Amino acid sequence: MKSPSSRDLLVLFKDDLYSEQEMQATIDQLNKLLYEVETVETFCTVNEVADLNKYKLITKPVKLSQILFQKEMKPFQFIINKN
Fold first, then answer.
1. Which of 18, 38, 44, 80 has the most neighbouring CB atoms within 10 Å?
2. pTM, 2 dp
């Protein structure tokens, strides 16, 4: 897994009121937040798979991760965001 500091982010600040240290602190906090949130468990919690071949809606995290880590999804299986 990547460490929290090994990602490229583009952060736009509206004002030039922040010092270089304040900007770096904000970016570090954002990196830590994204590192905690971007997990397979979180992805499986907020998404589901509609399998039109079997007419089922798959929401269990174990089944979702099995489907998502296949090399190719079967035809008519769709990843749907619950939002």
1. 44
2. 0.63
Q: What pLDDT does residue 51 have?
A: 93
Kindly state whether residue 2 falls inside one of the protein's structural domains: no
Q: Is 38 helix (H, G, I), strand (E, B) or coil?
A: coil
State how far the Cα of 15 lies from the Cα of 65, in Å rounded to an integer: 42
Q: Give phi and psi for 13, each to the nearest 5.
A: -105, 135
The SS3 assignment for 35 reads helix
Contact 34, 3 (CB under 8 A): no
Convert the pLDDT of each residue in 27-63 to its tens digit: 889 988 988 888 888 889 999 999 999 999 999 999 9
Start-to-end C-alpha separation, the chain: 27
DSSP 70: S
